[in-house]
Amino acid sequence: MLIVGVGGLGAAAALELARQGALRIGLVDGDRVEASNLHRQLLHGPADLGRPKVEVAAEKLRKLRPSLEIETHAARLTAGDVGARIAAYGFVIDATDHAPTKFLLNDACVRAGKPFVYAGVVGLRGQLLTVLPRESACLRCLFPEAPAEDETASCQDAGILGPLVGLVGALEAREAVKCLTGAGTPASDRLLTIDAASLRIREVPLRRSLACPLCGDGFETPPPHCSADTASRHPEETVV
Ligand SMILES: [Zn+2]
Question: Residue 5, class by beta-carbon neighbours within 10 Å (0-12 exposed, 13-18 middle, 19+ buried)?
Fold first, then answer.
């Protein structure tokens, strides 16, 4: 599994994968540990300030599971290297807080036929969607044009709730395990929205758009590496 972003979401996902017996993970993040976001980053502490996040995370994960194989990439993904970065992994976890990078990952994963999970947390709300390329809705089925950088709320502007980030990151790890083992039903074709204020989780049903500029009709991509339970692909909107 490749985890892109080793902040709050990525640290929670990595810890879950390590605990659940993952053999090999990759970590991508070009940032260094900062004091302003320690409250939501389970793998980083005050003694780590200024160090590359991927180095700190790998060090702590190795203490937790010495047999875990970890590859680190201390750089932000770019359009030029995203294809090579994801190529060696069976599943990709989007744990970034940067909308353009989410769409970069979406596009590269769909083109490569690589299943991945998108997630985002701002304020008291979180979202999660697993994308099975050419089988289920991708981010561009929802938003054909990626939002501009200044159109999305940032963690600095809206704040962020540490426990919610931990929950969503752990759910992302679970999606990876489900997809790679075939056990359970991926959260594909349904956008999970989590409202921490009311503690309600809603599912918004989605479908792959035939007009999607990335995965719509006429755009050929290889099949995904894991299959979903098609019987539960289009659930009614529910509150659970
Ligand atoms: Zn699409």
Answer: buried
Q: Taking CA 168 as the corner, what is the angle to CA 163 and CA 171, rounded to the nearest 5 degrees?
A: 125
pLDDT tens digits, 108-142: 999 999 999 999 998 889 999 999 999 999 999 99
**Distance of CA 165 from the midpoint of ligand 1 (Å):** 26
CA of 212 to the centre of ligand 1 (A): 5
pLDDT tens per residue, range 1-26: 999 999 999 999 999 999 988 999 99
Say if residues 206 and 141 touch (Cβ distance below 8 Å): yes
From edge to edge, which strands make up the β-sheet containing 92-94?
A: 69-73, 24-28, 2-4, 92-94, 116-122, 125-131, 190-195, 200-205, 238-239
How far is the centre of ligand 1, averaged over its atoms, from the C-alpha of 144 (Å)?
Answer: 8
Q: Which two tokens stand for residue 232?
A: 């539960």
Domains of the chain by residue range = 2-239
Question: How much is the pTM?
Answer: 0.86
Q: Are 129 and 117 in contact (CB under 8 A)?
A: yes
DSSP type of residue 160: B
Enter the CATH code of domain 2-239.
3.40.50.720
Give me ligand 1 centre to Cα 140, in Å: 5
Distance CA 146, CA 148 (A): 6
